[in-house]
Amino acid sequence: MSVLADVSMPPLRAENEPSGLVLAAVEKRGIPLFHARLSLPAGAARDPAGKTGLASFTSDLLRRGTARRNAEAVDALIEGMGAHLSVEANMDECALGLTVPFELAATALDALLEVALEPSFPADEVERAKRHTLSELQSDLDEPSTVASRALSVLGYGASHPYGHPLAGRTRDVETFTRADVTAFHASCYRSQGALLSLCGDASRDELIALARARLGQARFAGFANTKVAPDADSLALNTITNRDSAYAIAKRTGLTALIIHKDDSTQAQLRIVAPGLSRRAPGWAAAFVSNSALGGGFTSLLVDAIRVERGLSYSVSSRLSMNRHAGLSLFSSFTKNETLRELIDVSLEKMRGYAESGPSQDALAKAQRYLAGLFPFSLQGLEGLAEQLSDSVLDGTGLDSVEHYRTLITAVTAAEAKEAARTLSPARDGAQIVIVGDSAAAQKALAGICPVEIRPIAEFA
Fold first, then answer.
1. Please, are residues 385 and 200 in contact by the beta-carbon 8 Å criterion?
2. Which CA distances in Å does 440 have to 263, 264, 349?
């Protein structure tokens, strides 16, 4: 296929601060806006033992009061700028983002740092959040797709893995949360190594860096250890010296096994198939993206054609790569009526195993490459998308090349590379696990003769 032009990146600058914080400034002219994104190493992988969900719980409490303002005053400060403060936690980090007109840049950055670094965690807010979280975990049991997602974290990674628990935690752990737990987690993670502040806006790189330094004041981070800015800072390529991926290795499994999560009176079944995948920093990510897109990543993919278009077994079917910073999973997802569950399982396994042997056809390969390369520029639209992509490229250790030359890397994937990715990353390969959420009798019947089966009550996954 013809090679699409790489994305032209705006002028950039990256600096390691004496405090350890990394500053990244992106000069984006022509739009009088300012965006700040603060990425902190406070993800769910750092949940303490017996306190699953604490990272997510802590992030939810950040704007419920600071050392200077109560929750209502924090809301008034943010809304007074006509802004929305996003706070999102995942397995690897907590990221806060704020976009405002450029003339409010200093005020916005002050507000972002205050919320992130000076939360007061009032006792009444902690208790209110705890009741809300427990209520949500209980209501999640009414959503089979949510239960399936929660189960995949534990089964795919393993219960002892840093990623091997649901982001929102388990009911039995959330019930034990105290204000002391939250303040201790914040103190240990929100100023520790691995923090990055990205600024994008209608100003020069030097002006944005100067703005950040002026507003940081006494905010200090323990250090962005084992990382340094490359000599050409404009490239924003930071070189990670220590690779922690070995601590996140997924235990090897053999054979095919199945877990049924019983839900009373279910007329439909949620089906998932999971196997180990790739981390976001894995060198073979481009081939993996292309191969997965051809398998089940789009409406014209192999699995969609076979399951939805040709047989009408399900409205929703997909394969995807769930990629965290140090490890990932390869997933298949669908649902169907109890009566057609066996057919869905058979077709899914057959198609994925066949694809693992053959890889994508030349036409499917080119189609997947065009789709991914064409879609990518949309992820850079707006200051928020640009800051997120750049932050991830730095923190994941992939470097700016993974953003700047994404289209070249995708379109350069060969048929042989895509076939190898299909073989090594198939959700249905040896060691895969089937997860079904639904009526256990119907699921057992559908799985008869396929593999060993375990049954658990749905309440275990709250």
1. no
2. 7, 8, 20
| Rounded distance between C-alpha atoms, residue 402 and residue 287, angstroms | 13
Question: Cα separation of 74 and 234, whole Å?
Answer: 35
Question: Distance between CA atoms of 153 and 169, rounded to whole angstroms?
Answer: 11
Q: Smallest Cα–Cα separation from 150: which of 4, 272, 288? A: 272
Residue 424: CB atoms within 10 A of its CB come to 18
What region, left, alpha or beta, does residue 378 occupy, with left being phi > 0 and alpha being psi -120 to 50 degrees? alpha
pLDDT tens per residue, range 204-233: 999 999 999 999 875 556 544 444 443 333
Please, are residues 38 and 195 in contact by the beta-carbon 8 Å criterion? yes
% of the chain surpassing 90 pLDDT:
82
Could you give the CA distance from residue 434 to residue 461 in angstroms, rounded to a whole number?
16
Q: 104: closest CA among 35, 179, 180? A: 35
H helix runs in 21-93, sequence order: 54-61, 71-80
**229: Cβ–Cβ under 8 A, 6 or more apart, which residues?**
14, 15, 16, 22, 238
Residues 112 and 98: beta-carbon distance below 8 Å: yes
The answer to whether residues 311 and 400 touch, using CB atoms and an 8 Å cutoff, is: no
Tell me how far CA of residue 271 lies from CA of 161, 318, 448, in angstroms: 23, 11, 15
Mean pLDDT calculated for residue range 181-202: 93
Which domains, from first to last, does the chain contain? 12-246 (3.30.830.10), 248-461 (3.30.830.10)
Q: What confidence tens digit (pLDDT) does each residue in 393-427 have?
A: 889 888 888 898 999 999 999 999 999 999 999 99
Closest CA to 193 of 48, 62, 22: 22
Quote the CA–CA distance of 153 and 144 in Å, as a whole number.
15
Longest Cα pair distance anywhere in the chain, in angstroms? 67
CA–CA distance from 140 to each of 61, 135, 251 (Å)?
A: 21, 9, 28
What number of helices (H) and strands (E) belong to the chain? 17, 14
Length of the chain: 462
* pTM: predicted TM-score of the whole model, two decimal places: 0.92
SS3 295: helix
Cβ atoms of 194 and 21 within 8 Å: the answer is: no
Output DSSP code: residue 224: -
- Report in angstroms the alpha-carbon separations of 255 from 231, 258, 264, 325, 399: 48, 10, 29, 27, 37
